[in-house]
């Protein structure tokens, strides 16, 4: 009896991990990653794009995108405060501060309108936020 139980245990020890890995792989590959509901979507790998490296984003682009998202979630004043803190913490971002502040000003006009957006203006990066508000008005 123990010999039979050992053989069954060994067989399960070899087969069970393979079954779990395959079923997990198939489950993940059938997930609609793009959010489209066009039936079942299968994940496919393409060998043509394998050799291309992903483009790394510049720190100022990452900061700008993060601050624009923060502007949408909270308010432009908070985003401007965080811009000032980031520039103080990382002086290499100072040369991009004006462009980021202008982008925040344009986004504030889109969300709040020119009058309310102007009320958030601060002397961050030589009043570039106000310049962005004015340009978008």
Structure description:
64% of the residues lie in helices and 0% in strands. The chain is mostly helical and 137 residues long. The mean pLDDT is 80.
C-alpha geometry: elongated
What can be said about the biggest beta sheet? none
In whole angstroms, the N-to-C terminal distance is: 85 Å
Number of helices: 6
Instruction: Indicate the mean pLDDT.
Output: 80
Q: H/E order of the elements?
A: HHHHHH
Strand content: under 5%
Beta strand count: 0
The helix/strand class is mainly alpha
Low-confidence stretches: none
Fraction of residues in helix: 55-70%
| Radius of gyration computed on alpha carbons | 27 Å
Write a compact overview of the structure shown:
This protein has 137 residues and is mostly helical.
Topology diagram in text:
Layout: H1 2-29, H2 59-73, H3 76-89, H4 97-112, H5 114-118, H6 128-136
Which key features would you list for this structure?
elongated, about 65% helix, about 140 residues, mainly alpha
